[in-house]
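Attaching the record inline, Q. Sequence:
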Amino acid sequence: MLNIEVDDVGEASRRVAQHGGRVIRQEGMSNAVWVHPTSAHFAFIELNQPQREPSSTRESS
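Structure, as predicted:
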């Protein structure tokens, strides 16, 4: 299994599909998709967009 961290999982999955990859989405998981092994030389690939914590804002004085 190969896990690839991406900045935008939607864009990454569109690019995979445009190149003939079969993308699998699991209900309830908006930050990860999988590329079906039969369209990835039998490798199981996960595209993962890490959840970013909101950056804290500082007030300048």
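The domain at 2-48 is CATH 3.10.180.10 (2,3-Dihydroxybiphenyl 1,2-Dioxygenase; domain 1). The chain has a mean pLDDT of 87.

More tomorrow.
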